[in-house]
Amino acid sequence: MQAANRLQKALKKGGATFGAWQMLPGTNHARTIARCGMDWICVDTEHGNIDDGAMHEAVAAIAGCGVSPVVRIAANEGWMVKRALDAGAHGIIVPLLYTAADAELLVRSAKFPPLGGRGFGSPFPMEKFSNQTTGEYLQQANDALVTIVQIETKEALHNVAAIAAVPGVDVLLIGPFDLGNNIGHPILDGTMHPDLKAAIATIHKAATDAGKRSGIYCTSGEQAR
């Protein structure tokens, strides 16, 4: 499973990994984006026009192109985590965390026992890797799947070191627009306030100190650089 998870391989290799966002439903959309050379595609069920059925179809289409499907769920709810991972997502992105306890709850939802309480029984995820057997998926999923938490609130920024330290959290993803709004410096004209830049640096440092990876949503090549 780990060999088939392109996102996880890129994270372990180091350097930059690039993904794209799918906000409209449709397997043709998913395949078109997946053929653009990205390591992963985020299927956005938080702000995107993508329901549960469309999410299942997009995950399959992206994985079929050899790219990692990652699902952004709408909230830190265990049933949403289960639906995304049972569809075969290689990872999940979870918005609006506030505390380390929130991160611990997420990890419990995302991991099979003994590390968590995820239920087992979906017939769908195995083929999204390399036709794993059911038993292989059960044994390997805890290590092979990627758990990404968004740091986009004032509370999460305050607790970022503790969130980063939670075992099972792999990546801190910065949501710069919500983070700017939450700390009183919204991005209105594409310009980031110095306090927002400092907050972003704090998040990157927290991830590095915890031996985790960090990332940020970008709207241009210049911002990505």
UniProtKB/TrEMBL annotation:
GO cellular component: cytoplasm
Family: Belongs to the HpcH/HpaI aldolase family.
High-level lineage: Eukaryota, Fungi, Dikarya, Ascomycota, Pezizomycotina
HpcH/HpaI aldolase/citrate lyase domain segment(s): 28-211
Record field: transmembrane: none
PANTHER family per record: 2-KETO-3-DEOXY-L-RHAMNONATE ALDOLASE (PTHR30502), PHOSPHOENOLPYRUVATE CARBOXYLASE FAMILY PROTEIN (PTHR30502:SF0)
One Pfam family cited in the UniProt record for this chain: HpcH_HpaI
One example GO MF annotation: metal ion binding
Keyword set, alphabetical order: Lyase, Metal-binding
Protein name, entry field: HpcH/HpaI aldolase/citrate lyase domain-containing protein
Annotated InterPro entries: Aldolase/citrate-lyase_domain, HpcH-HpaI_aldolase, Pyrv/PenolPyrv_kinase-like_dom, Pyrv_kinase-like_dom_sf
